[in-house]
Amino acid sequence: MHVVVTRPHGDAEPLKSRIEALGWRVTLSPLIEIVPDAIPCDILRDATALIATSRNALTADLKSANDLPLFAVGPGTGAVAREIGFTKVIEGPGTGSDLVPILASRRAELGERPVYLRGDVIAFDIAGALAKAGIHVRAAKAYRSVAAERLNPEVIKALQNGNIDAVTLMSPRTAATWARLVGDLSSPVQLSGVTHLCLSPRVAEALGQPEKGYNVLVASHPNLEEMIALVKRLAANSKAE
């Protein structure tokens, strides 16, 4: 079995290692490049708490803010926060919308000047949702994401030969990029044998219209463990056929 992992460099290794441990062959084809941005020092200087809805927001030098409460979107982001020195980490279940009620219920820990560390593209407007609850946050762009212009040549060859069983898609933008790049190939490829393993329904929707005929499996919860569960499910189905 052969699976393509499309996560950015740096984020892909945990997923790659877990899939390989199941006996699958893995090829990396990052579809998004993460470019860190410098966070203005004055924003961090008087911040009372930090909010991060992606581990990519934690790549900047945040040592001066390590003593602040950090609200993380899920366990993966929370683990990265602890790795870089944060000790007061409050984890959500995995999505920005699910993090909102947690933030609203812990206003005292947020303080008067919470800072939302975000990227240039967001899937959910957490600042807008919090504003409706009377909580105002300052947004600081911590990174930007650049979509790939081409697929890994090894992946193109494997697609043409029908040698790919699955591709992992972890964000709506990644899914849209995959659909665009596959559609732009000079030699059309058949995707009937490829299962698209999607982190959430929004990721699946970003692949495009249903008539494109994608085979799709969607994780029951948006986290790494559920993506691994999808891989196991696909492997079991393949053995049963």
What distinguishing features does this structure have?
241 residues; alpha/beta; Rossmann fold; 2 domains
Describe the structure.
By secondary structure, the chain is α/β, with parallel strands linked by helices. The chain folds into 2 domains: 124 residues, Rossmann fold (3-Layer(aba) Sandwich), CATH 3.40.50.10090; 106 residues, Rossmann fold (3-Layer(aba) Sandwich). It has 10 helices and 11 strands. Strands 3-8-7-4-5-6 form a 6-stranded mixed beta sheet. A 5-stranded parallel beta sheet has the order 2-1-9-10-11, with helices on both faces. α9 links the parallel β10 and β11. The radius of gyration is 19 Å and the shape is elongated. The relative contact order is 0.16.
Break the fold down into its secondary structure elements and pairings.
Elements: E1 2-5, H1 12-21, E2 25-28, E3 32-36, H2 41-45, E4 49-52, E5 70-72, H3 75-83, E6 89-91, H4 96-105, H5 107-110, E7 114-119, H6 126-132, E8 138-147, H7 153-160, E9 166-169, H8 172-183, E10 195-198, H9 201-205, E11 215-218, H10 224-240
Parallel strand pairs: 1-2, 1-9, 4-5, 4-7, 5-6, 7-8, 9-10, 10-11
Antiparallel strand pairs: 3-8
